[in-house]
Amino acid sequence: MTLFEAMFAPRHDDHGKARTAGLPIRRLPFPERVTVPLAQHIGKPARTCVRIGQPVARGELIAEADGFVSIPHHAPVSGTVEALPLLTMADGRRTPAIAIRTDPSSLQCRLPLPPAVDPLTLTPDALAAAVQATGLVGLGGAAFPTHVKMSPPREARLDTLLVNGCECEPFLTADHRVMVEHTAALMAGIRYAMHALGVHRALIGVEDDKPAALAAMAAQLPADRSIQCRVLPTRYPQGAEKMLIRSVLQREVPSGKLPADIGVVVNNVGTLTMLGELLPRRAGLIERVVTVSGPGVQQAGNYLIPLGTRIGDVLRHAGMAPGDMEVILGGPMMGISAPSLDVPVTKGLSGILVFPAGSLPVRERRSCIRCGQCLDACPMGLNPSLLGQLAAKQEYEQSARHGVLDCIECGACTQGCPSGIPLLQYNRISKSVLRQRRPS
Ligand code: SF4
Ligand code: SF4
């Protein structure tokens, strides 16, 4: 399919996206307080550098990176540090956090920033250090520190920056709106990432259900063709890193290897857009775009939300419908159920979806009937049924031998299982245990 055909082809199934895909990004009003977790990324938690009672300005450094695989955090609002609590995250982890009470009289201007720099004049090492100082992580959900991705091993032979604009999860349209409304910043971020990686080619993979995004980007692609769009058929889970590499480059990431081992680094469009906005100004990441949608929300849309805002405050503003509701953090396929409305918006959160309680399909849990549907559904060629059985018996090393670390956590196996077996959750547990045993 050509770029033109994809931009104008008719659509019939919107996967819950039509309600928000055409709405401009709106800023959520500043909440009364924010709570910033120090561990909301992959790697070592940040170290607090403020004390209780200290006034902070919006954008000011409040926690420093603790080592290379760590990131700093910045104040999402101007106000006063009112507590340094231990916070329970959506996945049950406990982490130190910084609670800031918003100053109601503040205009919430950002802390004055140092003079702008041209990131393209920096050496790759200096550029990676500047990226770390922004506190940026993968905004697509992985929350992997961006500067680490931009510091590949010296022996890596990279040739392509692959830009992930698929956003294939149903309901989510935050990346779509970012591509439409912040195209110039996206192009700038792509150039900075290419400079850091030393590659001369960037390919943006976009599914054909996003004609407005394709049109916006087509208008800003450089004439030298160093940055190009690749239009892909809409298909879940195309946005998973390994799937995208397969679709765009027809390359396979070998089991146990990284994309960099086959010459590729993948970054999502939201991350690179933030990079394009933050890096020249040497500013920190303090807010992000989140899709708030689902049948239980009256004012669905894409909101620019200060990090650390309570999910409950977001939903109060977006008009959560009365009655018992189930809140999903992330997309419906890979997201997790919110244990409470007190958990905060974090750097890796792309969606908040609300459904009337009982409306989500819940299958009664039964024994495996060996139907093979999960094997057919798995895009990575794994045996989810076997992996689930091994996890249930805590035979994690066996799971590793059967490829659980290659699981991209797409949830396709769980969705299709007629016995209601939580195969994805089993794989997440196995991967978590194995990563703790083998931190490298
Ligand atoms: S979540 Fe299930 S279907 Fe998806 S890659 Fe993992 S095992 Fe395969
Ligand atoms: S889909 Fe469910 S019931 Fe069928 S083989 Fe897989 S685990 Fe067993």
TrEMBL record:
Gene3D superfamilies: 3.30.70.20, NADH-ubiquinone oxidoreductase 51kDa subunit. Belongs to the 4Fe4S bacterial-type ferredoxin family. RnfC subfamily. Its cofactor is [4Fe-4S] cluster. Binds 2 [4Fe-4S] clusters per subunit. GO terms for cellular component: plasma membrane. [4Fe-4S] cluster 1 binds at C368, C371, C374, C417. This is Ion-translocating oxidoreductase complex subunit C. GO terms for molecular function: 4 iron, 4 sulfur cluster binding; electron transfer activity; metal ion binding. Keywords: 4Fe-4S, Cell inner membrane, Cell membrane, Electron transport, Iron, Iron-sulfur, Membrane, Metal-binding, Repeat, Translocase, Transport. Pfam families: Complex1_51K (PF01512), Fer4_10 (PF13237), RnfC_N (PF13375), SLBB (PF10531). Its main location: membrane. Its EC number is 7.-.-.-. [4Fe-4S] cluster 2 binds at C378, C407, C410, C413. Part of a membrane-bound complex that couples electron transfer with translocation of ions across the membrane.
